[in-house]
UniProtKB/TrEMBL annotation:
InterPro entries: AAA_GajA/Old/RecF-like (IPR041685), Bact_Antivir_Def_Nuclease (IPR051396), P-loop_NTPase (IPR027417). Coiled coil: none annotated. Residues 1-44, 225-312 form the Endonuclease GajA/Old nuclease/RecF-like AAA domain. Transmembrane segments: none annotated. It comes from the Archaea. This is ABC transporter ATPase. It comes from Thermococcus litoralis (strain ATCC 51850 / DSM 5473 / JCM 8560 / NS-C). Pfam families: AAA_15.
Length: 361
């Protein structure tokens, strides 16, 4: 479990340190307080030292596109000050880890003969697009880099903007991570992948039971071949034919995605941005119980952002009932600086009951 986390020079965060983290960590605060930035920094940090299926490329792509892709500015916006390196440091089970994001200017300086990209590949990328080039992972001390090329027509100075790497004295470790955003709920192909994750872990039966608690009419979920690519279909009571997942309501899709992801993850990390998105009260209650139960039974540490006071209250209630160590992290911005205070679930419940304090900041 990650017990402390430090961020420097990332997005709107100049410097921030979080200590005494819990198994379930609810990040709350007003708009533009830095909540999503923390989730993104966590995802990059964990993926950057991860040996589990090499997830950094997927996480980096999501961080660059989740807020909307707008060329080089999407990459530059990762830095609080773009001439300084971003540093992400955290402690997991008493072991320190660090990841750096360094802006670079010349493609030759970074590739160094280890990474090759030919003119035909560059032309296929096209202007206004980006490609992530994986580096070489060597045994022993970690040598792992990811390069981001944007607006490429030809490899010239300025095309290669960032490199992701970890300290030379750190080692790759197995830290399974899932980073979930509202975009995943509607993104083509995501639910099929989530289903395969759960199937491999023999978690589909559990996921289906979770879905039925929110939607009793649900019966089954299955990817079916359609134009070569599998497409998810939903079997609902009283319907003559299965229904494509992508035409179902957003609330159903949100709970289904959450159920599959939670049922597929063990001994890892679940990161959720805008966790309340698309949920009605009953679905929100099912999701809250699912997160608490999944964290406890599968040894998963959860970090999520939310604007929902109802969700915060539910997670505190179910967390305390299940004796899961939880934290509410209050984010705020003062004079341009991001600050955070951390309260345990017990302390947060007392603030709600005695003072009626709005825990969203």
């Amino acid at each position: 479990m990650i017990t402390s986390f430090r961020i420097e020079n990332f997005r709107g965060i100049k410097k921030l340190e979080l200590n005494n983290l819990g198994q379930i960590n609810v990040i709350a605060g007003k708009n533009n307080a830095g909540k999503s930035s923390i989730i993104e920094a966590f995802s990059i940090g964990i993926a950057g030292v991860n040996s589990e299926n090499d997830p950094l490329q997927e996480v980096l792509t999501k961080v660059l596109t989740w807020r909307g892709w707008f060329g080089k500015n999407s990459v530059t916006s990762l830095f609080y000050q773009d001439y300084l390196a971003t540093k992400i440091k955290f402690v997991e089970n008493n072991t320190p880890f660090s990841v750096e994001i360094r802006k670079q200017g010349n493609i030759v300086d970074i590739l160094g003969g280890e990474l090759k990209i030919d003119d035909d590949t560059i032309r296929r990328i096209g202007l206004g697009k980006f490609i992530i080039l994986p580096g070489i992972v060597k045994a022993g001390p970690l040598k792992k880099t990811y390069s981001v090329l944007v607006n490429v027509g030809f490899p010239k100075e300025g095309d290669l903007l960032t490199v992701f790497s970890t300290s030379d004295d750190m080692y790759l470790v197995e830290m399974p991570v899932r980073f979930l955003t509202p975009f995943d709920i509607i993104s083509p192909g995501f639910i099929e992948r989530a289903h395969s994750w759960a199937f491999k872990e023999k978690g589909t039966e559990r996921a289906f039971s979770i879905i039925k608690k929110g939607y009793p009419e649900f019966q089954n979920l299955s990817p079916l071949p359609e134009n070569i690519t599998p497409v998810m279909y939903v079997d609902i009571k009283w319907t003559k034919k299965a229904i494509p997942y992508y035409v179902m309501g957003d609330g159903f899709k949100a709970l289904t995605a959450m159920a599959l992801v939670v049922s597929s993850l063990k001994n890892g990390y679940l990161l959720i941005d805008s966790a309340e998105a698309f949920h009605h009260p009953k679905s929100l209650r099912v999701m809250s119980k699912t997160l608490v139960r999944g964290a406890k039974e599968n040894n998963v540490q959860v970090f999520l952002t939310t604007h929902s006071l109802e969700l915060i209250d539910m997670l505190i209630k179910y967390g305390l009932e299940s004796k899961v160590e939880g934290r509410v992290i209050y984010m705020k911005r003062e004079n341009g600086n991001v600050k955070a205070s951390i309260e345990t679930f017990e302390e947060s419940q007392e603030l709600r009951e005695t003072l009626g304090l709005d825990l969203r900041g």
